[in-house]
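PROTEIN DATA CARD
Card holder: DUF5050 domain-containing protein
Chain length: 363
Origin: Neobittarella massiliensis
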Amino acid sequence: MRAAKLLAVAVALTALLGGCSHASEGAKKLTAPSKKPAPPSYGSQLSYQDNKYQNSRVRRGADNTYVCSYHEIYQIDAQGAVKVLVSMPDTQLYGLRLYREDLLLFTSRDMTPRGDALFALGFWSCDLHTGALQQQPFFPQYYEIIGDVLYTAEGGQDMLRANGADTYSLPDLKPLKNGVVCPLSAVYTGLGALDLDSGIYAAAENHEVLGYEPQVTVRQDIVLSQLGGGESQHICTYTGTMYDGWLATHRGVYYQQADALWVADYQSKDPVQLCAKLPEGMRLFTYDENWLYLIDSDSYQTMARVHSQTGRIETLPFTVKDDPFASPLDTCGGYLYFTGPDDLLYRCPQSDPSAIQVEPFDG
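Structure generated from the sequence above:
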């Protein structure tokens, strides 16, 4: 009986296998479905940078911090000791950048005692070891350092583009004949660029004008991109006036919409409202590890800050100078540095903006 059952099972298996074999003849082989490449996630590569590209008066090197006042460049070591590296009493200094063992900076000298707005402009390199200055034979209206290349621009503040002789190799500052486009949006307005050393930048794209009254209203997409091309990572879309600001930070993109402040985390699809009511007339300006700084868009002199995680708002207890050449407030090394209406440079701890010191910060 058992032998008969085993025989029946064997016959059934033979028929089944034979049928399968027969059915598969001439049939197409199945292939695994193709997988779409995962979208880029540049935000996960970002970390807080003390040397933000909005800064124009403060640079942090490996051992020292360099701070540019109107007439001096100060070197501050890790213990807080301050020394004057450069002094040019009759010349305004600004636009500070750091490349290895050299600082690059702009100078402006008023040539008309009656104030007819005639200036002698200069572009200089400064040796960090000796303080020796060397004037360069060209003057870029704006410039940025990425890797070993100096990118310059002669146009406005919307896009920094460089080609031909507008691109220079570092450290020799020789013109590059085959320069590349450097697609950095709003670098000098304190609104856009991110960690350029790792090749990541933020930009507002696909502007759509929705109305002109009472102010120009636009719809924008904020994206992260990689220098050299590649797919962009879409972060958020927002609608606001041309005076509403946005900041791409290591935590996410913060943007103003109506009177509210929103944050779009790099890993999330849905922006979250951080605070419902910003101080009237204020727009986003710069940031540090924990705070977003706002400046009055009319006077360009009063400032406030919003905690980047709690939304708490504080008015800063000082007034800054409306400076057409450089950022009136920069952050670095745990301090806020700002130019006062008296043209002197001040600083205060980020943790206590009321503890204000005046240059040279040694008192």
